[in-house]
Amino acid sequence: MVIKRFKPLLTALVALFFAAFVVGTTASADSKPNYIISTDATYAPFDFQDKNNNYVGIDMDILKEVAKRNNFTYTLKPMSFNAAAQMVANGQADGIIAGMMINDSRKQVYDVSTPYYQSGVAWITKPNSKIKSLSDLKGKTVALKTGTAAAAYGASLKDKYGFKVKYFNDTDTMYNDVVNGNTAATFEDYPVIQYAIKNGVKLQVRNPKDLGNAGGVGFFVKKGQNAQLLEQFNTTLAAMKKDGTYDKIINKYLNSSQSTFVGSASDNKTTLGILKSNQNAFWKGLLETAKLTVFGIVLASLWGLLLGIMGISESKFWRGLSTTIIYIFRGLPLMVLAFFIYIGLPGVIGVKIPAFTAGILTLILNEGAYTGAFVRGGFESVDVGQMEAARSLGLTHRQAIWKVIVPQGLKITVPSFVNQFIITLKDTSILSAIGLLELTQTGTLIVARNSQGFRVWAIIAVIYLIVITLLTWFSNWLKKKIA
């Protein structure tokens, strides 16, 4: 049977996936307890990256001090807010510190610390906006960030004042939607919007003396777990407030010059300046993207080739299995699959999956399904007379497949492989949603720090274009060699 020839392919696939698992897993010989802490690193001044690409902010400094005084270490997992919260709920992380507001619904899922910050909600428009009061929002659309207390407060007013809401997953996109006039206003925690305006965001707080009640900000752990970590946080927070450490941290981020964290104004106002001041971050993001792409291309191609061969097997079972796998994983959006593998699956199997491994597995299953479909199509497009001629010469069905059909079919599919390589490279950007610090996530963190969205994303776009062009040239060269 053809399936007997799958063993070398399966061996290579397993070996390469194991290598990806090793790359994605960080081992530590430190005897100190190590906790996995998730965060949203695009929420200045609570959580963001500074000009040296270190994670800083009110949350980060408090967490660092708690760890120091209680002699434990932690591994930080920055990602989108909702994903960060789900990591804790599903046991992938031990705690979350992300400017997260305390409310009754969250208390049902998490155990929460004493509040370490009390925040108010401001509503914001463009400086020259004709909207002067909440009543002026009637019939307009308001931008909100998913999962935040400010969003909950804003949504609670929509019926009273007759406005519609539009949700975003990151702060910078939400701000720019208002700046560009696509939405009329937004609601945001007051210290967050204060920091953004100081940093150059062209928005204005309306009625700053009349803030909505957002409540307290807390540190969260999964309900019924990590009681010691929560107790250490509460005890240390009380001590920090008593000895003045807490006030120093708050003043550091709310009253200091923003250039301390984001770099000089000249660096942030020109594309060349941004590129120069963030060259290390861009380079690291590009390397992570390259690593994901190489692993993804190789493993997805092997998996796709296996699916393609299964699709032309003599056995109805293997053909049906190939068709089913291709149908399922081509039908799932890449981001949904990434969230399912990284956040959903560990809650079922009870095993934590490293982000890099989850990202590679996502690419294998999704890109491999598309590869399997066109590989199978390439094999089936080989003239049927080729198989008949091979069998008439005494070759078995298996020998005819491997020696006649597969070589010709692969030549036919070379252009499709080229396209799929490029698609795989671009699809790595979606994996930023599960915290992988590839090129797109790097751009998001830089924008959160300096609020220069247009220039940063222009740089990211050019980098992607250059890499895709190089990959296309290489693929075309390879196609000529094979043809």
TrEMBL record:
PROSITE patterns: ABC_TM1, SBP_BACTERIAL_3. It comes from the Bacteria. The chain crosses the membrane at residues 292-312, 324-343, 454-474. It is a multi-pass membrane protein. Keywords: Cell membrane, Membrane, Signal, Transmembrane, Transmembrane helix, Transport. The keyword Transmembrane helix applies. It holds the Pfam family SBP_bac_3. Residues 286-475 form the ABC transmembrane type-1 domain. Residues 1-29 form the signal peptide. It is found in: Cell membrane. Belongs to the binding-protein-dependent transport system permease family. This is ABC transporter substrate-binding protein/permease. It comes from Fructobacillus papyrifericola.
